[in-house]
Amino acid sequence: MAAAAERTGSGDAGLRRRLLLLLWLPLLAWEAGAEQMEEYLKREHSLTMPYQGVGTGSSSLWELMGNAMVMTQFVRLTPDIQSKQGAVWNRVPCYLRDWEMQVHFKIHGQGKKNLNGDGFAIWYAKDRMQPGPVFGSKDTFIGLGVFVDTYPNEEKQQEAQKKRYSSGNQRVFPYVSAMVTNGSLVYDHERDGRPTELGGCTAIVRNLEHDTFLVIRYVKRRLTVLLDIDGKHEWRDCVDIPGVHLPRGYFFGISSATGDLSDNHDIISLKTYQLTVDRTMEEEKRDKEVFLPVVDNMKLPGMATPMEPMSGLALFLIVFFSLVAIVFAIVVGVIVYNKWQERSRKHFY
């Protein structure tokens, strides 16, 4: 009997390992096809059970804010109670050049569809532990925000005002979106961040029996968000934005808020990996360090567009043709002056 029980236990463990392998195989295959890279788990930027690095002490790696609580199997950002805010922020700034964050989360509650709220946000921001109106954090942040929004504020406001809401612009909620700002843009929570959204997708993530995962990847100035939320152990694209320049030394964090509507927002694990990728000389020149976030082909207010330095040939041609124009203007001036003097003498005699 003991042997049979042991075999059963080992069989269950093997099955769990195989299921976990199946879950990550599609992502590994996607990595192999996209880039040749290696990844290393960075424990100082990761949050896993039994959550020993979470606390208020100076030696802790993660700090709780608001109504967030550490439970046995998850960190609960907000309970299914109205008007709550909670967050957990990494104390250690991230200086990784290329990184990936894998978030295992669960959103659940008693509210019916569109009678729940509000969602949570994942941050890579300059300032940490700053409460505010955007999923429990401030709306004038500097950095990257990825939002899992479960309530359509704009649509409900239009309905309350009995205005027609254009179905062509309508988004199906829950909705995942991304935003990058240098502090001059404000996330408009009343419009669900639509004016400043870089990209997004619908993500049905509430009250599911299976596990739900979100991956944020930042490699070679390319921002990608992937989801595994269908219980099929398959990753699907949500956001893919090239030309995203993020400074190093910002902080990771996750925050959430409830209002008149509520949900449980639980973070089961957050794993951050350092990615090592090969770069060409051209990519090294292109991926220079920045001091404020910027997105190519998207002018952020307060950001002056840097001028490309002129080459030596261009500078020589500008000087040469300028001198030619000056000499030509002098010659023309001398000819006109002589003609005028000649006419003056004839008129005098």
Structural descriptors:
17 strands, Intracellular_Lectin-GPT, single chain, 349 residues, signal, Lectin, mannose binding 2 like, lectin, ConA-like_dom_sf, alpha+beta, elongated
Number of strands: 17
**Strand percent estimate:** 25-35%
Mean pLDDT: 85
The main β sheet shows up as: 8 strands, antiparallel
From the alpha carbons, calculate the radius of gyration and give it in angstroms: 29 Å
What is the straight-line distance between the termini?
Answer: 137 Å
- Our count of helices gives 4
The helix content, as a percent range, equals 10-25%
Tertiary shape: elongated
- Low-confidence stretches are 1-11, 28-33, 302-308
Alpha-beta classification = alpha+beta
Oligomeric assembly: single chain
Order of helices and strands: HEEEEEEEEHEEEEEEEEHEH
InterPro entries: ConA-like_dom_sf, Intracellular_Lectin-GPT, Lectin_leg
Keywords: Disulfide bond, Glycoprotein, Golgi apparatus, Lectin, Membrane, Metal-binding, Signal, Transmembrane, Transmembrane helix
Signal peptide: 1-34
Subcellular location: Endomembrane system; Golgi apparatus membrane
